[in-house]
Amino acid sequence: MNEISVNHLLGIQNLTEKDFDLIFNTASQFKEVINRPIKKVPSLRDLTIANLFFENSTRTKLSFELAEKRLSADVINFSTSQSSIKKGETLVDTVNNILAMKVDMIVIRHPHAGSAKFLSQNVNSQIINAGDGAHEHPTQALLDCFSLRERLGDLKGKHIAIIGDIIHSRVAISNIFALKALGAEVMICGPKSLLPKYAESMGVNVEIDLIKALRWCDAVNMLRVQNERMNINYFPSTREYSKLYGLTNEKIQSIRKPITILHPGPINRGVEITSEVADSENAIILDQVENGVAIRMAVIYLLASKIKNISSA
Ligand code: CP
């Protein structure tokens, strides 16, 4: 049966090989839909989804909202700044009150690792993790892999390097799980202070020299330095970081081969990547954003299919 194996999307590790195929195939169909003059399907007319964002977001929040609207779901949005969380209400009470208004599915971004799983265990609703602290960002990894497959084909045996602030990055963790599940070889690269000590136990190659990482890889995923998650200095200065780990045309030209360039956004131009590189034809950063809508449509549709009787995609 064409059914996703999970009831919630909390992280990448719970997904089976069949789930990846199902998500990517469904996303391909939805990508066609969102490129038509009429970008909507009526599939989720009977579904109401609440997007709860306890942390800032541009791409993920808008992408989920558009995905839900393209599927004809009813959508409500919630952000902490305007909510009663400030008056001391717990997360579970807040969500149970939202669910009492006949909401069917919750999308949550939260600064605390494990918050999506905690909710899935304590409220009666399907939960999608839109990023929980430095833990996981599963839809980002799915859209990154989907975009890479469009450029590189099957990822089995492909070399993918993830560069920068790995230790604070939910994008890195979810990408490592997803890329390895799809058969890719993964390398992480950055200053030692930004590489987690447990990295090798995740089965990835570890490198501190950016040029060596670039020589090794078919594609590179450049990460932003997450200053908002740092309470100490992890490197002497942004200028030095940029000199050693910023991706520039000169560095790419020095390895004498084309590589595909990803970035989950938001970009700090001139820090981890120059404008020239971010806007170059090997960069697929805006493809990632476009594919994000299709991937989120697929995830929502497949999860909703488990609780509602809905028409095919
Ligand atoms: N990639 C990503 O999660 O971006 P936002 O923080 O803007 O959602």
Question: If you had to describe this structure to a student in words, what would you say it looks like?
Answer:
With 313 residues, the protein is of the alpha/beta class. It folds into two domains: 17-136 and 290-304, Rossmann fold (3-Layer(aba) Sandwich), CATH 3.40.50.1370; 138-288, Rossmann fold, CATH 3.40.50. Helices cover 40% and strands 14% of the residues. It is built from eleven helices and nine strands. The protein has helices at 17-34, 59-70, 91-100, 115-122, 138-152, 170-181, 210-216, 238-245, 249-255, 275-278, 285-307; strands at residues 48-53, 74-79, 105-110, 126-132, 159-163, 185-189, 205-207, 219-222, 260-262. It has a five-stranded parallel sheet with strand order 7-6-5-8-9, with helices on both faces. A four-stranded parallel sheet has the order 2-1-3-4, with helices on both faces. The longest helix is centred in the last third of the chain and has 23 residues, at 285-307. The structure holds phosphoric acid mono(formamide)ester (CP). Residues 57-60, 131, 137, 140, 264-266 line the site of phosphoric acid mono(formamide)ester.
Layout of secondary structure:
Layout: H1 17-34, E1 48-53, H2 59-70, E2 74-79, H3 91-100, E3 105-110, H4 115-122, E4 126-132, H5 138-152, E5 159-163, H6 170-181, E6 185-189, E7 205-207, H7 210-216, E8 219-222, H8 238-245, H9 249-255, E9 260-262, H10 275-278, H11 285-307
Parallel strand pairs: 1-2, 1-3, 3-4, 5-6, 5-8, 6-7, 8-9
Phosphoric acid mono(formamide)ester binds next to α2.
